[in-house]
Amino acid sequence: MKDNFSIPILLMMFNRPEDTLKVFLKIREIKPKLLFISSDGPRKNYPSDIEACEKCLKIIDMIDWDCEVKTLVRKVNLGCGVAPAQAITWFFNHVKMGIIIEDDVIPDISFFGFCERMLLKYEDNEKVMHISGCYFLNSFTKPSKQSYYFTKHVHVWGWATWSRAWEHYCYNLSDYKMIESKKVLRNYYGAHYIFWRDIYLSIKNGRRDIWDYQWMYAIFKNSGIAINPNKNLTKNIGFNQDATHTTNEDSIFNKVELESLSEIIDQNDESIDTEKDNLYYKHFLDFDLVSELRKRNKIWYLKQILKKLKNGLLLFWKKKKNFHTENVKNF
Fold first, then answer.
1. Is this structure's pTM higher than 0.85?
2. Which of 127, 155, 157, 217 is least buried, going by the fewest C-beta atoms within 10 A?
């Protein structure tokens, strides 16, 4: 790959200096002309975060090529939902297109060229809203002649998009009730409607501190599609007990190895590859995410039922007490 990569890159980091350094060294190989760095602040009651966050920021001193650097450094912790959402919005307030990488995602060097090619090729195609570096289906599919395919699945372990797509993003899903009433969700996801409805409801009810499913929501409600490579060009190295979401080191996602793309062969058919999408549902979403979501939703719904039962019993005893009091007075 040529030096001085022209596509802007956003690196989002927090408190993992060792992982952040690994990711940064990959970025340094391509020497981007424009690098955005966002950092969330240390958490309260976590003294070690202060030093860890400061160590992460020291990578700025390692930029040794001709590069314009813009930073967004928080003094306080916004969390793994608000912080990334605000950082990406900040990024696209400055650029028309770009690549987003978090501090626990290692890209293959070919990932950058792939994103560049897709960003330029589909820049004016508003239906295409997302470009991913992930491919998890090697064990379940035959090699493809084309380098990528179109999908409804949105992966954010190394990805790219345009400001014209990100402008549809809404963190709190303010229009969810309207979208649900018009059956947009049901029509888009079909047989998998219930699964996605439960996810979006959990976000709407404030039970998930995340940002990425809101991005998926923005894509589906605009009938958008995503691009996935037919080789896995990024790998999440953050599977451990210290992680917020990727705590299961035995996760099937953690077993997918990093690959390289030697050349890019275009896909001329922009229709969704339903076979691959269904394979992803079958082998991946029915494991980690579904079981976690169902467990969380069951707990939440159980709490709601118990709350209603409690309120109902209180109302019953109140009415019974009033009835008894009135009868005593009348007697």
1. no
2. 127
